[in-house]
Amino acid sequence: MSDARSEVGxxxxxxxxxxxxxxxxxxxxSWLRENHPEIWIxxxxxxxxxxxxxVDGVHYHFVxxxxxxxxxxxxxxxxxxxxxxxxxxxxxxxxxxxALAEGRPALLEIDLxxxxxxxxxxxxxxxxxxxxxxxxxLVRRLVGRxxxxxxxxxxxxxxxRAELAAEPEFDAVVVNHTIPAAAEELIELMxx
Length: 192
Hints:
Elements (H helix, E strand, L loop, with lengths): L13 E5 L6 H11 L4 E2 L3 E2 L14 E2 L2 H9 L3 E7 L3 E6 H9 L4 E4 L2 H10 L4 E6 L3 H11 L4 H15 L7 E4 L3 H13 L1
Parallel strand pairs: 1-7, 1-8, 2-7, 3-4, 8-9
Antiparallel strand pairs: 3-6, 5-6
Helix pairs in contact: 1-7
């Protein structure tokens, strides 16, 4: 990688943000998108159903199983995984490489399985774990968003327990007490 300088102030380096379900990864990245447009944020492809308020190409690239299979077969994804034993999610490779080549600070917001794959392919990336203030707060946030039924909440909480145990695999941890504070702490890590 070249020694291109980003507007954040450090050599361009991919940052990977992961953490358990309902910890606020999407909210933190949305805040960054609105307040730090110099940061390029990857848009994942997914086979899950589009939720109310989500915009295709902004929140996710919503694709069917056949399109996702084609992306996997042609190695168009930097990483991909089955999440919550249901939908598949993946990071399109081309846009990530383009952003880094342009010298832009780049951020991937992905799940634990994807972060592990990116570590194998791009070990020079910075890996940041977004943690909840407590287990009780994580459960409150998941229930409070009201986007999953009881069975889906239980499936996600089961996944979250395993995801929380992976915290030591990451280079840094940001506790999401509030979205702006967590986002600013993430910016500081990207600058370091």
